[in-house]
Design goal:
2 copies of one chain form a homodimer. Helices cover 50% and strands 11% of the residues of chain A. Chain A is of the alpha/beta class and 285 residues long. Chain A has 2 domains: 7-64, Helicase, Ruva Protein, domain 3 (Orthogonal Bundle); 71-278, Rossmann fold (3-Layer(aba) Sandwich). A 7-stranded mixed β-sheet of chain A has the order 1-7-6-5-2-3-4, sandwiched between helices. The mean pLDDT of chain A is 94.
Chain lengths: 285, 285
């Protein structure tokens, strides 16, 4: 997804939010805003938003001296998500279509997002997503590709959300490679967060090799790209990965909850919607 | 009022909004965002927000070549407001306390604000304010000062809103000097807008002598300051004038609807509240 004009005030809002998580020192936070303000002119409209997110959050770390301000929040998200695990497993087990319920569970986990949204109540929002109608529902393609796939690449999004992803991975019951961010950024899942969620018991965890809050291919490691290009079935979780990969031609299935009106407009849905969207582009070979 | 950290993303949002009113050219609007981004570090936290608003909206004019993008919107606001005039006069005439209803009418007009809020429906919002409880209600002081005043300085805010102010001026029935902005800025009222609203028939219109979206004294003309300092009763309309004058010691009565959560926090009320607030500071002499 390209960067829209509306993304620019949002970059500043995100810098402010991250600055406040990192420090109480108003002078330092003002410096974060000043420097991010100066960076805006370096951001072209044809870049993807996570490319800028990467520099912005790095700047917050530099100025505040706190490179991972969301560390404690991530631990707490995982703890809360793990406490919901038995309930969510029961929902899947008692459902007529376990796979579909597990997909809903995975999308429900995507409400945990401290980048674009702070106003979520995990328990309420999860139940909401379990019931909600899909705005885009390419479930047929999901099942077809799953049935044909020998190996699945599952690109994770946020810490805590990994617990919900684990339930979908368990339900799919196929070999899965689970990709996490290469370094802490916002509340995105890193290797440690995926292990805390128990992903290591159900999938092979790899790093995208980038600290961008979305799998921007040109910033990813060769190792990740090798797995990515050989995969016939790629699951992309969340807004950051959608922003990074929406224009790629590979057969990706995007699973996300829409928390930003600009992404909503880009996809052609509404803020608050849940989406299971197959990438329409032809496969690059 | 000082500039809070939250004002910085809002400065960019306002620049984007004004840029879009002025032009469809995305490249020009991007340049507006780039240049406003660069200005942020020049904005100290102890300045008032309208000081920055002045520079930001001036920058929008410079880059887009449209110094008064809100011109048509202002004309339309005044037209709509004039169509409500007979209804509003009837509300005041049929009320038990005509002065209080006229104050409510004046505050109701303050919903017309393209700086901080676009989502207003004039008819609905006016009726809402006519019924709503005040969050701060220094009506006793308003009446005492009105009774003691020989001359009133009434500092206007937005175009269209002037029509509502006219009703309060008519109800007070005292000599009033009505101050407008010295040049177009956002949808703030200028001399022309006040005349369009019929203010010239009920008050002497003067200019603050500044193009700031609030009467920041150090930027106002000597003529305005002379009137300001000799006034024993000053009515200040809207957020911009509150931001500019809230720390001044003169006997000001602020009439406004709260459309921004930062101003709400500064005053100690909630967004959406209506306020009739006397300045507590001692008179400078």
């Amino acid at each position: 997804m390209r960067t829209y004009l509306d993304c620019f005030p949002c970059f500043l809002t995100q810098a402010l939010r991250a600055g406040r998580i990192a420090t109480d020192d108003e002078t330092k936070i003002k410096k974060v805003l000043d420097e991010v303000g100066m960076m805006l002119r370096e951001i072209p409209l044809d870049s993807t938003p996570p490319q800028s997110g990467r520099w912005i959050y790095r700047k917050v770390g530099e100025i505040t001296g706190i490179p991972d301000p969301y560390r404690d929040i991530k631990k707490e998200s995982t703890r809360k998500a793990l406490s919901l695990y038995p309930y969510l497993k029961k929902q899947v087990a008692s459902s007529d279509d376990g796979l579909l319920t597990a997909i809903r569970v995975a999308i429900a986990g995507n409400v945990i997002d401290f980048g674009s949204n702070w106003n979520f109540d995990l328990n309420t929002d999860v139940d909401d997503v379990l019931e909600k109608d899909f705005a885009l529902f390419d479930y047929g393609q999901f099942k077809d590709r799953l049935n044909a796939a020998n190996e699945i690449l599952y690109i994770g999004d946020n810490a805590g959300e990994c617990v919900f992803d684990r339930i979908l991975i368990e339900e799919m019951n196929r070999p899965v490679t689970y990709a996490v961010r290469g370094a802490p950024i916002i509340n995105d899942a890193t290797y440690e967060d995926a292990v805390d969620a128990g992903i290591d018991g159900v999938a092979t965890i790899i790093s995208t090799g980038t600290d961008a809050p979305g799998a921007i291919l040109e910033t990813c490691s060769a190792e990740f790209k090798k797995v990515y290009h050989r995969s016939s079935f790629i699951i992309s979780k969340g807004q950051g990965n959608y922003e990074a990969l929406s224009m790629e031609p590979e057969p990706i299935l995007f699973l996300l909850k829409i928390k930003c009106h600009i992404i909503a407009k880009d996809i052609g849905v509404k803020k608050g919607d849940i989406v299971l969207k197959a990438n329409k582009g032809p496969r690059k070979k």
